[in-house]
Automatic annotation (TrEMBL), chain A:
Residue ranges constituting the ABC transmembrane type-1 domain according to the UniProt record: 20-208
A single MF term (Gene Ontology): L-cystine transmembrane transporter activity
Family in the record: Belongs to the binding-protein-dependent transport system permease family. HisMQ subfamily.
Compartment annotation: Cell inner membrane; Cell membrane
GO cellular component: ATP-binding cassette (ABC) transporter complex
InterPro entries: AA_ABC_transptr_permease_3TM, ArtM/GltK/GlnP/TcyL/YhdX-like, MetI-like, MetI-like_sf
Keywords from the named record: Amino-acid transport, Cell membrane, Membrane, Transmembrane, Transmembrane helix, Transport
Protein name: Amino acid ABC transporter membrane protein, PAAT family
Transmembrane segment boundaries: 20-43, 55-76, 82-103, 189-207
Its membrane topology: Multi-pass membrane protein
PANTHER family attached to this UniProt entry: L-CYSTINE TRANSPORT SYSTEM PERMEASE PROTEIN TCYL (PTHR30614:SF0), MEMBRANE COMPONENT OF AMINO ACID ABC TRANSPORTER (PTHR30614)
From TrEMBL, chain B:
Keyword ATP-binding: yes
Name the UniProt record assigns to this protein: Amino acid ABC transporter ATP-binding protein, PAAT family
UniProtKB keywords: ATP-binding, Nucleotide-binding, Transport
SUPFAM superfamilies xrefs: P-loop containing nucleoside triphosphate hydrolases
Pfam families the UniProt entry points to: ABC_tran
Molecular function GO labels: ABC-type amino acid transporter activity; ATP binding; ATP hydrolysis activity
InterPro entries: AAA+_ATPase (IPR003593), ABC_ATPase_HisP-typ (IPR030679), ABC_transporter-like_ATP-bd (IPR003439), ABC_transporter-like_CS (IPR017871), MetN_ABC_transporter-like (IPR050086), P-loop_NTPase (IPR027417)
Ranges for domain ABC transporter: 2-239
Lineage summary: Bacteria, Pseudomonadati, Pseudomonadota, Alphaproteobacteria, Hyphomicrobiales
Coiled-coil region(s): none
Similarity comment: family membership: Belongs to the ABC transporter superfamily.
SMART domains, A to Z: AAA
Amino acid sequence: MRALDLDYMLGLVPVILGYVPLTLFMAAVAMVLALLLASLMAVERVIKVPVLDGFVRLFISFFRGTPLLVQLFLFYYGLPQIFAFLTQIDGVTAAIMGLTLHFSAYMAESIRAAIVGVDRSQWEAAESIGMTRGQMMRRIILPQAGRIAAPTLVNYFIDMIKSTSLAFTLGVTEMMGAAQKEAAGSFRYFEAFLVVAIIYWVMVELLSQAQRQLEGRLNRAFAR
Amino acid sequence: MIDIRGLTKRFGHQTVLDGIDLSIEAGERVVVIGPSGTGKSTLLRCINFLDRPDSGTIRLSNLGVDAKAASRADILALRRRTAFVFQNYALFANRTAKQNIMEALVTVQKQPKAEAEKRALAILAETGLSERADSYPAALSGGQQQRVGIGRAMAIGAELMLFDEPTSALDPEWVGEVLDLMRRIAERRQTMLIVTHEMQFAREIADRVLFMDGGRIVEEGPPDAIFENATDPRTRAFLKRVRSDGSA
């Protein structure tokens, strides 16, 4: 057994940190898109639009029922063989698309459950003053559902940040890819991947702190 | 002003409203009494389409709605010209007291925000809640929440205000303040349809009392006639029962 090469690790930290913006970029864009898509699907699942409901259920079933890695490979390596125009898509875009679709399926279910969890009196009060369905959802139901779903959604975001490492398998040089390249030259694989692990860990911890603050703010209206 | 014909509502096999006919004049204050589960609340909820009636017509001034053919636009129009006060207050949990009152004005009536806020503050002053304007419902007592609920209904300026057992969920200590507020609204000759178990209050403010049983209006008349000289045995039995409970 040999000792950890701490100097090597310290030297590697700034190199890997240089790829943090790309990781956050992929996760943030995918999160925003997934939230939008998931909210639309969740509202649809609650009000049940004929025909569309079948598609939404199929979508959710497929993207929850298959591994993210398989989905990414299907998009990036598989689909371009069938649809030629998809060969234009680069690894980062494919990763963002894959993350969006995959996580939107999970988030749709938790947002749907949160919508259903909003007290019946809130729906009735909104109806009684003559709000349209859209107004009711936007102004009363979704904000309250958001509060219920927030802890779960932040968990998905954390999962999403970590899942961006799979973009490595699409040839994207992100944190994992950079560490792999560095280690290939120095043969210090353990140190390189340990640096990656620690940086992910710290990012997630910082996010968990932010989560506690967010929940405090969201609960303000409900404090007695 | 409001004219209801043949209003019928079934839940499964049970007929909850059995062809209700009811006309209310502008400025009239009508109180509905009767045993639990006889369709009093359902009547109010059907007028606002919170429950969709199975058949019958509701005419409010120049707006006619046929239950069987009611479009979404008809229902919205009807709801925008009536106001509903809920037994459980049903304040918007994510809005402050002031915002609860402003919501319909800003979102539904498209009033400028400043104007809506002015109106909301005036109503809060009237309901004695000025200092709670920025409190969220969870921080208010039951009585305060219901006064905001009534304030929200007042703000709409509805032709008809519907009160669905507004004091039934309240601790006894808060009932008085809510009834006081309703008395003040009644004094302005606001058209009101009230379901309540507060018999003394009913007697005081009603122009007309309806006794409902089994999904029908069994008997109606001025409060004195109903409370002193009810002719239908069911009305007499009900009044005797509530009096022996000490509630009137």
